[in-house]
Amino acid sequence: MEEKKERRQYDKEFKEEAVRLVVEGKRRTSEVARDLGIESNMLHRWKKEMEVDQSGAFPGKGRMKPEEEENRRLRRELEDIREERDILKKALAVFSRRGK
User: Counting Cβ atoms within 10 Å, is residue 81 exposed (0-12), middle (13-18) or buried (19+)?
Assistant: First the structure.
């Protein structure tokens, strides 16, 4: 039977420090990754995420970036409004039939 490899999780500070070592230390990504015991492609991904959105990078487990959270809230609100609209349409249909 094949053993399941446990996924390691890294906190925000570790990721930021690893990226800083590459950017400020003028060291190769593969070298820093080897020293930290991580895959170089993971470090490349972290570096890219920091370049795209430094303040919102690595929000943490179960947390979303503010834009994503607002998007989710607006989608939920839209869904509620559509549901209310559909209920009102049905009520209008019922009441307009009663008047005949």
Answer: exposed
- Residues 6+ positions from 16 with CB-CB distance below 8 Å: 50, 57, 58
Yes or no: domain 9-63 corresponds to CATH 1.10.10: yes
Q: Residue 98 above 90 pLDDT? A: no
Spatial contact of 33 and 39, defined as CB atoms under 8 Å apart:
yes
Domain ranges in the chain? 9-63, 64-100
Q: How far is CA 27 from the centre of its chain?
A: 29
Produce one character per residue of 54-78: b if its CB has 16 or more CB atoms within 10 Å, e if not. Answer: eeebbeeeeeeeeeeeeeeeeeeee
pLDDT for position 85: 96
Residue with the bigger pLDDT between 35 and 64: it is 35
Instruction: Return the C-alpha torsion angle 8, 13, 15, 19, nearest 10.
Output: -160
